[in-house]
């Protein structure tokens, strides 16, 4: 099975004191460390596991600058066979443009399965995978937590709303956006990354792709980015259980909660 995995390099914002840039369109990223998107890490691992079962190849693809090649090297160190970086130049990238560029690179290749992460840690839109499948004209599934290939189809488990799971059949070629927890991504050693740095990495420029201005026109724009307003701190309720329970009930009642 030939598998393509679309991955992204994102800033670590979880424990940082974020600042909004001067245009109020994004956060300042100069001082933030960058890593592979968490969901994409699971997608790479799943691709390597499937290749170990079925044979074939795993190709990691990202859109970005030379700095973004570090996550491709990581993918190679995890077991990917090939890596492609698509240079966007000065293009503005939203979910539509990203998916359109990826589709143009992927569509002419020999693939059975395309894997993406369910969403990205930066904007959490969760749209690229589904739009990419539509551009490619292939079957797709989101929130995938299990994949069992069987010839030209697979039995998959998907995460549904309300804590429910579903079991589906899907035919190849297909695209699946995987959920975290589908596997346990393997540890990547420094030595593994050094070895991966010697592997060939293909670079494609968007200007060399058969894309029109309309294909590369953003469909969404950011009006404003802002930090949520600060709220009062939590109230610690102390005392024995009966006193604590009584106070909690009073607080709920004062806030319009029927108890």
Fold and architecture overview:
With 259 residues, the chain is α/β, with parallel strands linked by helices. It contains six helices and eleven strands. A nine-stranded mixed sheet has the order 9-8-7-10-6-1-4-5-11, sandwiched between helices. It has a two-stranded antiparallel ribbon with strand order 2-3. It is globular, with a radius of gyration of 22 Å. The model has no long low-confidence stretch (mean pLDDT 93).
Helicity range of the residues?
25-40%
Write down the overall mean pLDDT.
Answer: 93
**CA(first)-CA(last) distance:** 57 Å
Give the CATH H-level superfamily: HUPs
Tally of domains: 1
Low-confidence stretches: none
Features:
globular, 24% strand, Rossmann fold, nine-stranded mixed sheet, two-stranded antiparallel sheet, alpha/beta, 259 residues
């Amino acid at each position: 099975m030939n598998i393509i995995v679309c991955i992204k390099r994102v800033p670590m914002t979880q424990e940082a004191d974020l600042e909004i840039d001067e245009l109020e369109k994004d956060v300042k990223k100069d001082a933030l460390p960058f890593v592979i998107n968490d969901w994409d890490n699971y997608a790479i691992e799943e691709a390597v596991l499937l290749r170990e079962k079925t044979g074939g190849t795993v190709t990691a693809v990202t859109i970005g600058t030379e700095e973004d090649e570090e996550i491709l090297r990581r993918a190679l160190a995890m077991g990917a066979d090939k890596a492609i970086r698509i240079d966007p130049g000065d293009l503005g990238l939203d979910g539509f443009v990203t998916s359109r560029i990826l589709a143009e690179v992927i569509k002419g290749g020999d693939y059975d399965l395309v894997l993406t992460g369910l969403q990205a840690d930066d904007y959490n839109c969760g749209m690229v995978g589904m739009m990419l499948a539509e551009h490619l004209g292939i079957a797709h599934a989101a929130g995938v937590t299990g994949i069992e290939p069987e010839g030209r189809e697979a039995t998959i488990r998907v995460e549904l709303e309300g804590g429910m799971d579903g079991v589906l059949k899907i035919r190849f070629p297909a695209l699946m956006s995987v959920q975290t927890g589908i596997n346990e991504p393997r540890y990547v050693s420094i030595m593994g990354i050094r070895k991966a740095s010697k592997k060939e990495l293909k670079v494609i420029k968007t200007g060399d792709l058969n894309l029109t201005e309309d294909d590369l026109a953003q469909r969404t724009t950011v009006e404003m980015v802002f930090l949520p307003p600060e709220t009062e701190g939590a109230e610690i309720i102390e005392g024995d259980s009966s006193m604590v329970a009584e106070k909690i009930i009073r607080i709920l009642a004062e806030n319009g909660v029927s108890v």
